[in-house]
Design brief:
alpha+beta, four-stranded mixed sheet, 44% helix, Ribosomal L7Ae/L30e/S12e/Gadd45 family protein, Ribosomal_eL30-like_sf, Ribosomal_eL8/eL30/eS12/Gad45
Length: 82
């Protein structure tokens, strides 16, 4: 399951931080919650596809946040290159 991969990896949470990390070349996968607003997620998705980073869509930002160990929802989460 996708949430397990997030739970077991080092992550970056949030659109701005994720885009910065992608620019630095330190992201290997991007997770995006389907129930997040498009204006929050579109820039990260577009940039990830442009530079060839896989984008995985998950159902819930609440569950994505929970998988990251935070108590709020997460719209965009990146798994970093180890």
């Amino acid at each position: 399951m996708s949430y397990d991969r997030v739970r077991d990896s080092q992550t970056i949470i949030g659109t701005k931080q994720t885009v910065k990390a992608m620019q630095a070349g330190s992201v290997k996968e991007l997770f995006v919650a389907l129930d997040a607003d498009n204006w929050v997620t579109d820039s990260a998705i577009s940039f990830a596809r442009e530079i060839g980073i896989p984008v995985i869509l998950v159902e819930s930002k609440k569950e994505l946040g929970k998988a990251c160990g935070i108590h709020v929802g997460a719209a965009v989460v990146a798994i970093t290159v180890e």
